[in-house]
TrEMBL record:
GO terms for cellular component: neuron projection; plasma membrane; presynapse. The keyword Membrane applies. The chain crosses the membrane at residues 40-58, 70-91, 112-140, 203-222, 234-258, 278-302, 314-339, 374-395, 416-441, 447-469, 481-505, 525-547. Na(+) 2 binds at V49, N320. One of its GO terms (molecular function) is metal ion binding. It is a multi-pass membrane protein. This is Transporter. Disulfide bonds join C152-C161.
Length: 580
């Protein structure tokens, strides 16, 4: 057993400095720490607030009852998302280690969860940074007096290109394509040169150059650890809010903006009786806050031991949810403006979802208003910075997990390891840079993360609350904060939050949505490939369990000390109400 000692609160500015006797493992005394409290908070906010907040929440909100959707969203946040968010911050701060080696202290037989998290984070890096590369391509293209997606006079346009802005009596039919849509599909992606996943075509060198620049920024932001990334987020995490505020003011002054706001928030109370609405609310809050990805464990592991992680969890969760809500106004004021110009209903304009909302619908609205070049530039700067923050967090989760697991090899080779990781991520992204790369992005997004990360989060919650024990976990929090978590948090950790995740998993498996992008329907073989991708991350959990049980001497029936050391698990369900 490692020696422990009593220490005083840290002297870092902005941290809780109340002296509390706490056990600290001496081997982590040399661990890097955040220079300032705000470095940590901005890093967490930057990870949690990503591109999904800008496009996914507004779309999910209006699709599931408008203002009425806020009820299941808030309920799921209070009883599911925030408790899991708080749990991960507390775990990382107490054990001060990454997503793999932390299981030595919690429940070693679940160590496969850490490996699964790293594989999932790799899959995310394979497609997420490509989306940022698309934004960088748009950013470069925005430096023009007339934005290239404003009209139909370009080499990539077809006879179906229809520009209804600044023109009267324009006929819009099912075959019509806006200049913005053709710019995205035929110039940025060149998806028309691909027949689908069976023939994705060649690599787009322009996108490869954009991705290279993105990963260069990522490398020099992460190579020295939290000392450098903590400084970068002062720009990348705050700039999006400045841009969102500017776009909100501009959108509110456009004709027809009120139509979009009404459509966004008008309650449809009957939707509350549909199971799918609650599933969407649960999935949205989970993916928005980001527990289960190992990022919160990694970032909080660099905190001083007595930092108030409870307050951090509440503040950052609120910021995240309010950002999603505000983004809805930014998006739907523009959609209302477009509906006014097209002389159609808002729902006819708002049919696009996912990246299409960011790369077709919104740029189209920007291109046809005064000061379009300026607004296009700041919009895509916002998208790039939103994406970079999440990439910083995702890769830091892998870096911290692997370096903490193998310190004898990597402790003094961080720069080299980060370089190797970035190269692997770049090479893994090449398939998403092809003409049919958007199809690969959709497949990885759906199956590489999807149910796998929710299942990982479910097992993590079970392992901590049921096996490590809620009493022991509460004592850990007491040693850091000076007080026990309340009864509400204990009940959520033991029962409600795991049920919340199980609910999402079962619902998604029972009613899988058909996979489609534009007019391309994914063939059955590609769905099989998707399930294999999903299983390739989750499989490390049972594999590691079997490995540990087979290679440890003795049998479970004999209950030898070695087996007890493997499991290190006690089910403490009867202690939920202890110390409440």
């Amino acid at each position: 057993m490692l020696p422990i000692k009593n220490v005083q609160g840290p002297s870092n500015p902005g941290y809780n400095t109340n002296p509390v006797p706490v056990p600290v493992i001496t081997q982590t005394d040399t661990r890097d720490k955040w220079s300032k409290k705000m470095d940590f908070l901005l890093s967490v906010i930057g990870f949690a607030v990503d591109l999904g907040n800008v496009w996914r929440f507004p779309y999910i909100c209006y699709q599931n009852g408008g203002g009425a959707f806020l009820i299941p969203y808030i309920v799921m946040a209070i009883f599911g998302g925030v408790p899991l968010f708080y749990m991960e911050l507390a775990l990382g701060q107490f054990h001060r280690t990454g997503a793999i080696s932390i299981w030595k202290h919690i429940c070693p037989i679940f160590k496969g969860i850490g490996y699964a998290i790293c594989v999932i984070s790799l899959y995310v890096s394979f497609y997420y940074n490509t989306i940022i590369a698309w934004a960088l391509f748009y950013f470069y293209s925005s430096f023009a007096s007339v934005l290239p997606w404003t009209n139909c006079d370009n080499a990539w346009n077809t006879e179906n290109c229809t520009n209804y802005f600044l023109k009267d009596n324009v006929t819009w039919n099912n075959y019509s394509r806006s200049p913005a849509e053709e710019f995205y599909t035929r110039n940025v992606l060149e998806i028309h040169k691909s027949d689908g996943l069976s023939n994705v075509g060649g690599v787009r060198w322009q996108l490869m150059l954009c991705l290279f620049l993105i990963f260069t920024i990522v490398y020099f932001s992460l190579w020295k650890g939290v000392k450098t990334s903590g400084k970068v987020v002062w720009v990348t995490a705050t700039l999006p809010y400045v841009v969102l505020f500017i776009l909100l003011i501009r959108g509110a002054t456009l004709p027809g903006a009120w139509k979009g706001v009404v459509f966004y928030l008008q309650p449809k109370w009957e939707k509350l009786f549909e199971t799918s609405v609650w599933v969407d609310a649960a999935a949205q809050i989970f993916f928005s806050l980001g527990p289960g990805f190992g990022v919160l464990l990694a970032l909080s592991s660099y905190n001083p031991f007595t930092n108030n992680c409870y307050r951090d969890a509440i503040v950052t969760s609120l910021v995240n949810c309010l950002t999603s809500f505000m983004s809805g106004f930014v998006i739907f004021t523009m959609l209302g403006y477009m509906a006014e110009k097209r002389n159609v209903n808002v729902e006819d304009v708002a049919r696009d979802k996912g990246p299409s909302l960011l790369f077709i619908t919104y740029p189209e609205a920007i291109a046809n208003m005064t000061g379009s070049t300026f607004f296009a530039i700041i919009f895509f700067v916002m998208m790039i910075t939103l994406g970079l923050d999440s990439t910083f967090g995702g890769l830091e989760a892998i870096i911290t997990a692997v370096m903490d697991e193998y310190p004898e090899y990597l402790a003094h080779r961080r720069e080299l390891f980060v370089l190797g990781l970035v190269v692997v991520c770049f090479l893994g992204s090449l398939s998403t840079l092809t003409n049919g790369g958007a199809y690969v992005v959709k497949l990885l997004e759906e199956f590489g993360v999807g149910s796998s990360i929710i299942a990982v989060g479910f097992l993590e919650a079970i392992a901590v609350s049921w096996f490590y024990g809620i009493t022991r976990f509460s004592n850990d929090i007491k040693s850091m904060l000076g007080y026990y978590p309340g009864l509400f948090w204990k009940v959520c950790w033991v029962a409600i939050s795991p049920a919340f995740l199980a609910y999402i998993i079962v619902s998604s498996l029972l009613k899988p949505a058909p996979l489609q992008l534009f007019d391309y329907k994914y063939p059955d073989w590609s769905i099989t490939v998707g399930y294999i991708i999903g299983a390739s991350s989750f499989m490390w959990i049972p594999i590691y369990m079997v490995y540990k049980l087979v290679w440890t001497p003795g049998s479970l029936k004999q209950v030898r000390p070695s087996n007890a050391a493997i499991l290190n698990c006690q089910i403490h369900l009867n202690s939920v109400f202890h110390n409440s």
